[in-house]
Amino acid sequence: MVYFEHTCTEGYGFDVSGQQRENRTKNDRSKKSMRIYFDIFIAFFRSSILSFGGGPVGIPLIEEEVVKKYHWMTLEEFGDLVAIANALPGPINTKLAGYIGWRIKGAAGMLLALVACVFPIVIVLILLLGFLTRFQDQRWVRGMTQAVLPVVGVLMAQLTWRFVTSAKKGMGWTLTLILIAASFILMELLHIQAPILIALTLLFVLLKPWKQRSKKEGASK
Amino acid sequence: MTTLWHIFLAFFIPGILGYGGGPASIPLIENEVVDHYHWMSVTTFSNVLAFGNSLPGPIAPELAGYIGYHVGGVAGSLMAMFATIAPSLLLLIVLLRLLYTFKDSPKVKWLTLLIRPIIVVMLGMMAWNFFATANQGSGWLPMVLIGAGAFILMQRFRIHPAFIIAGALLIGALFMG
Questions:
Q1: Looking at CB atoms within 10 Å, which of A17, A62, B112, B165 has the fewest?
Q2: What Cα–Cα distance (Å) separates residue B59 from each residue in A104, A125, B111, B126?
Q3: Cβ pair A149:B57 closer than 8 A
Q4: A219 in contact with B at a CB cutoff of 8 Å?
Q5: Do B133 and B83 belong to one domain?
């Protein structure tokens, strides 16, 4: 399972991938449409079953499947999705899975993605909880969790870097670095939570009159 | 029916109030399940939580699925997962649909652009936290070795993360216990 399109971080438009998808379904409708359900299941099953530690660990793993492997969305769309999903309450992984499933194949896709993401482990919990609690304090189990952390850290750092480059492409190094520094100060030093910052950015963009689009912004930062 | 309704409420409220995702809503779930409805004792709850945490996948829906089953069978399980997942997911779908209706407007383009630095800090801090936790747990040497190994295998040899995570699990079980 070597992924080949590693470099397709951007420039991979909405319309292009939509058109590709359309052409594919025209060619061989029934077979391909079954195939897509299978892919949805695998994508979210795999990203969920690998995300030891729950929560945010799943983000780079879902990106791996959805952006890099299956090209269901671009990195930029995924970024918007993560930001807005994070600004809303509730568990992040199922929001991502449910939304992406919905965008690919409507309600059926959504349900399938959610089932793939949650059901396997719930079934394990229900069936094996009594039996397996004996192992949870075993040192080797903790060793496994420890060993996975650096790998997930690297995945997350790589994803972070891809968003840095994508921001740079959109607005140049200077503005990118200034805004990253500003966000860092606001979020980590002044402890303004990301959802609030995202909501403020949203308000700022909506309320600001856009006469000429070249105008650089002072931002809500 | 009342049980199902209670299950819905018990997981709907933490899901809606749980800013910061699944892990943030766990104390709220505990409050409902243990203190309010007395469905299980604190000890049982923390046992389930600890075990759920050592399994992969999103913790809050998994917890909901298990506790729902414990209280109301399969229907209870489905109801609890629905209450955890559905409300915020529906909100997300509506919001993003609105956004993409205007995806060609300069406003939305600017939004996408301006949000990126926030995502960078958000994800960057998550990455930092993973390393910090690993450093505390296993010390810096195993962390650096595994991290560097993973980086090289992924970046240079394009190995799918699934294999690297499986490898790390094996190393952890054998040598880091």
A1: A17
A2: 25, 11, 31, 17
A3: no
A4: yes
A5: no
Identify whether the C-beta of residue B24 lies closer than 8 Å to the C-beta of residue A83.
Answer: no
Put simply, the chain B residues between 120 and 149 with a CB less than 8 A from any chain A CB are 120-128, 130-131, 133-134, 137-138, 142-144, 146-147
The answer, for B74 touching chain A at a CB cutoff of 8 Å, is no
Closest to B142 measured CA to CA, from A140, A52, A146, A137:
A146
- Does the distance separating the beta carbons of B23 and A143 come in below 8 Å? no
Do residue A122 and residue B61 have CB atoms under 8 angstroms apart?
yes
Q: What are the start-end ranges of the E strands in B12-148?
A: none
Residues spanned by the domain of B165: 106-175
Share above pLDDT 90 across residues of chain B, in percent, rounded to a whole number: 43
In a 3-state reduction of DSSP, which class is residue A193?
coil
- Distance between CA atoms of A196 and B116, rounded to whole angstroms? 15
Do the domain assignments include residue A7?
no
Is residue B74 domain-shared with residue B144, that is, in the same domain?
Answer: no
Dump pLDDT digits (tens) for A76-94: 899 989 988 888 888 889 9
pLDDT at position A13 is: 38
pLDDT grade for B51, boundaries at 50, 70 and 90: confident
Mutate to test the interface with A, among B26, B71, B121, B135 (most CBs of A within 10 A): B121
Question: Helix, strand or coil for residue B1?
Answer: coil
B interface test, pick of A64, A163, A200 with most B CB neighbours within 10 Å: A163
Which residue bears the tokens 């890099």? A68
Whether residue A8 lies inside any domain: the answer is no
| pTM of the full structure | 0.79
In a domain, residue A106? The reply is yes
Same domain flag for B128 and B77: no
Residues B56, B81 within the same domain:
yes
Which residues of chain A neighbour B128 with C-beta distances below 8 Å?
153
- What residue numbers bound the domain in which A191 lies? 14-207
